[in-house]
Model the fold of this input.
Amino acid sequence: MASYKELVSQAEALMAQAEEVRKQELAGVIADIKAKMKEFGISPADLGISGGARKARAAKAPAVVKYRNANGETWAGGLGRKPRWVAEVLASGGDIETYRV
Done:
């Protein structure tokens, strides 16, 4: 009877062999698909494929302005870094709510 280590070694060798065969079969399938696409004039777009390019994100709507200072600078009050003027108001002990639009 084979030892555990021998069986694991055999299993790893079989998995490596299976991966090589899969890669070879995959290459043949891809070549066949490309040939058929060329023969019938099918493009990736016909299949609903963007051709491998990443899909563009949908454009975000601009944030609604919630605060405005005397200079006309605005802030939507969202997450992330605050504009310098907001940080200065808060650092000086001011209340940002006095700038609410």
About this structure: The CA atoms of residues 89 and 96 lie 7 Å apart.
